[in-house]
Every structure is written in structure tokens, then in C-alpha cells.
Design goal:
Elements: H1 2-22, H2 36-40, E1 46-53, E2 59-66, E3 75-84, E4 92-100, E5 106-110, E6 114-118, E7 126-127, E8 133-141, H3 149-163, H4 178-188, E9 190-191, E10 194-195, E11 204-213, H5 214-217, E12 223-232, E13 257-261, H6 266-271, H7 278-290, H8 300-311, H9 334-341, E14 345-348, H10 359-364, H11 384-393
Antiparallel strand pairs: 1-2, 2-11, 3-4, 3-12, 4-5, 5-6, 7-8, 8-11, 9-10, 12-13, 12-14
Protein name: DUF4331 domain-containing protein
Region (Disordered): 399-422
């Protein structure tokens, strides 16, 4: 117990340092530090979610990394895997629910199909009772990399230009001058005017890593749509994992949802926008974390508004990915806003080649350069931040980067538990 208290105190002190150095609302990592609720309880904070098919084409690999250095016995960690034959339409769902005791032993249910419990800290992990999945749960290196200060300073350049009279069209896309657009890009690629540095270099994460048979999770069709949530354990249901039981317990009911994520940067970049007031941004992100699946669409307007801002960063409005050049500006970004509001990582499970972020989405919208035979998804080695922001700014997968191209460590897509040692 003393070790647990010391560990939590250490994590809290680290976050106090981050807040005082950069400002919580100014940290635009993937999904790290997104709301006051998770900053108060880092064990509830999903940093990133990853999903891709195994190299033998038989399994779906899943990673949820948690900001804290240990898991909480007061929380439930959940992977949702929806599946179907057509992009955007899923007909079946499998929920993988994991919880921990005070010693960080784990138990997980893959729906009602399989179950595991025990100590999953070793790199080999634990195999489930029916051998349909393997799980690792412990400290690893955080694979997300991001130059936080450069983009933050670039947002300040944009904000100053808007305060000084830069106009915007009816969609809210700023008409930045070429000089301002260049200043935004140059600032974005540097850290306080110097070469870009990775804010998350050496960052340790508590990772839940699962490799599960496709027969278990892709029951509705070859396309899998993955998202992750964290829930409070219902009152009176704190995990007390019993070892040596002959039969495993029933799948637990889920408590209150307090965190969710899927694609990188949706919540931090588009629901709570980079120029939003702190209180407004917090409130929208908190609501986003708690809303049920049926309510996701209500965040389309938030996303659409911030898409318009990103669209102008390169000095040209209307060249964002999926922007409707024939529509009036106020309707230009609705297709992409609707796509991102349905925030799930799409994986083509019929492919074992995973090289392109958004490959499934690109193929569905006939995007030039799409790889229809790629699994898409998100592996730990995708340059997600730069690809995502380039799509929002110039409509391609490159050209608007933060000066970083890879993590400080190499992560595997084929060797369990995938993420590098911390």
C-alpha cells in the first residue's frame, strides 16, 4: 500500500510540474491530460489507443496506454471492437473489460467468450483460459511523440493575427497572409525557436496490450472499428481478484464513463479547440468523455468549427481533406466533421499489411494515394500527429509537421507486447 501511495504521489508531482511549466490547457499531446477529471486521477487518463492486425493475419492487436504508472482498482478499462462489412456501418460488437486489484493483478473478459486473470507484468503476458487472447499489463515506453511547445507557440501566432484584424470567411476559416501562414509553420516546427524536441521523450506509460483472435472480435465483418473507455467501478464492486477459482465470475456491469478515445488528437485538437477559452474547452471535453455512443454526433459542430481554423493555417481555405469546394463555406467541413464525430479506429482485418494511418477512411472516400489493401488502423510507429494535422491543413498526409518524425525508441508491430521497454 505504501508503494502505491508513493507511486501516485510521484505521478501527481510530475503533473504539477507539467501544469506549471506549460499550462494544462496548453498541452496538446494526443489524448494526454484532456480534462480536469483525468488530470486529478492519471490512472483514468488514456494517452493513446492503437489497433492493427497481426503479421499472420489471425489476430487483432490492441494497445491502451494510461498516463499513470500503475492501474487503479477503482476503474474499469474497456476496449470496444465493433465490426461490419461496410465502412461506417457496424453490426456486431465485442467488449473487452479489464480491471485490476490493489497489487495490479488483472482480470479481463472478452465478452462472454473468454477470460483471464493473474499477474500480466512479464513481457510474455498471460494467455486466456480458451487461448483466444494474450494480455500484458505493465509499464512500457509511450510511443506517441509530439513537439508540444512549437504548436502551442504557433497557435499563439495565429491567435495574435486574429486579434489584430485577420478576417475569416463564413465558415470561420482565417484569411492569413502568406507571411503569417509561413510564420505559423516555422514556429510549429521548432521548440522556442530551436530545433524541435519531443515533449514525451522517455515518458513511461501503463500499457494494456491485448492480441486477440479475429474470430472473437470481427464477428460482423472484415472491418473492425475500435474505441476505448475508462469507467468508474460501480459502488461496492472494487476488484478483489481471487486466484485458483474453478469458474470465472460473470462479466461485470460497467460503471460511469469518465474517459474515451480512439483516433489521435480528436478530443484535444478538435472538440476542445486550440484557441478556445479554458473553461469552455474543459466543459466540452468532459461532456465528450461521458456521452453514450448514440450521442457522439452532437460534437460535430465543435469539430466543424475547429476544422475551419486548421484549414486556414497554410494560408488557403478550402484545401482541407474532404472539404467540399463546391459548397458554401459554412457547409464546407461537414463531411469531415461527421466522420471524426464517429470516433473509432478503423481496421481492415482482411489485411496483415499495416502501413497507412486512415487507410480504411482514405479508401472509403477515394482519396488519392489510398491503399485499399492496407489494414489502416493505428500502429505504434505511425507518424500520427503530423499526418493528422497535414490532412487538416493542406489536405495531404505531409507538409505540416512539428519537426519530429519518429519516437526516441523503436516499437514492434509483430513482437508482443509491441511497445518498447520503459
Amino acid at each position: 500500500m505504501l508503494h502505491a501511495i508513493e507511486s501516485r504521489l510521484c505521478v501527481c508531482l510530475v503533473f504539477v510540474g507539467i501544469v506549471s511549466m506549460i499550462g494544462f490547457e496548453k498541452v496538446h499531446a494526443s489524448d494526454h491530460l484532456d480534462t480536469p477529471t483525468v488530470i486529478a486521477d492519471p490512472a483514468a487518463d488514456i494517452g493513446d489507443l492503437y489497433a492493427w492486425t497481426s503479421s499472420d493475419g489471425k489476430r487483432l492487436n490492441l494497445v491502451m496506454d494510461i498516463v499513470a504508472h500503475q492501474f487503479s482498482n477503482r476503474l474499469q478499462y474497456v476496449f470496444h471492437v465493433d465490426s461490419g462489412q461496410q465502412f461506417g456501418k457496424t453490426t456486431a460488437s465485442t467488449t473487452i473489460v479489464c480491471r485490476f486489484d490493489v497489487a495490479n493483478n488483472v482480470e479481463c473478459w472478452a465478452g462472454k467468450k473468454d477470460y483471464v486473470r493473474g499477474d500480466a507484468h512479464s513481457a510474455a503476458g498471460l494467455e486466456s483460459e480458451k487461448r483466444t487472447f494474450r494480455i500484458f499489463a505493465g509499464l512500457r515506453d509511450d510511443p506517441f511523440f509530439n513537439n508540444v511547445k512549437g504548436p502551442r507557440e504557433a497557435y499563439n501566432v495565429a491567435g495574435a493575427a486574429l486579434k489584430n484584424g485577420t478576417s475569416a470567411d463564413s465558415a470561420g476559416c482565417p484569411n492569413f497572409t502568406p507571411a503569417t501562414a509561413q510564420a505559423i509553420l516555422d514556429t510549429w516546427r521548432h521548440t522556442s525557436g530551436r530545433p524541435a524536441t519531443n515533449f514525451l521523450a522517455g515518458w513511461k506509460t501503463s500499457a494494456i496490450v491485448i492480441s486477440i483472435d479475429l474470430d472473437v472480435v470481427a464477428t460482423g465483418g472484415k472491418l473492425a472499428a475500435v474505441w476505448g473507455t475508462v469507467h468508474r467501478v460501480p459502488h461496492g464492486h472494487t476488484a478483489q481478484i481471487a486466484h485458483g477459482m474453478d469458474r470465472h465470475p460473470a462479466v461485470p456491469a460497467l460503471g460511469e464513463a469518465i474517459e474515451r478515445t480512439a483516433r489521435p488528437l480528436i478530443k484535444n485538437g478538435l472538440v476542445g479547440g486550440p484557441l478556445d477559452q479554458e473553461a469552455i474547452s474543459y466543459a466540452r471535453r468532459e461532456a465528450y468523455n461521458r456521452v453514450s455512443r448514440t450521442g457522439w454526433g452532437r460534437f460535430s459542430k465543435d469539430i466543424e468549427r475547429n476544422l475551419s481554423l486548421y484549414d486556414g493555417f497554410d494560408g488557403t481555405c478550402g484545401n482541407q481533406w474532404l472539404a467540399d469546394k463546391n459548397a458554401e463555406p459554412s457547409k464546407r467541413h461537414r463531411t469531415l466533421a461527421k466522420l471524426f464525430a464517429d470516433d473509432r479506429i478503423w481496421v481492415n482485418t482482411s489485411s496483415s499489411s499495416c502501413t497507412q494511418l486512415f487507410a480504411v477512411e482514405f479508401s472509403a472516400f477515394d482519396t488519392p494515394g489510398a491503399l485499399p489493401e492496407d489494414c489502416g488502423g493505428r500502429t505504434p510507429n505511425y507518424n500520427a500527429s503530423n499526418i493528422f494535422r497535414s490532412l487538416l491543413t493542406n489536405g495531404t498526409s505531409s507538409g505540416f509537421d512539428d519537426g519530429l518524425q519518429q519516437d526516441d525508441k523503436h516499437h514492434s508491430t509483430s513482437e508482443f507486447p509491441f511497445l518498447a521497454e520503459p
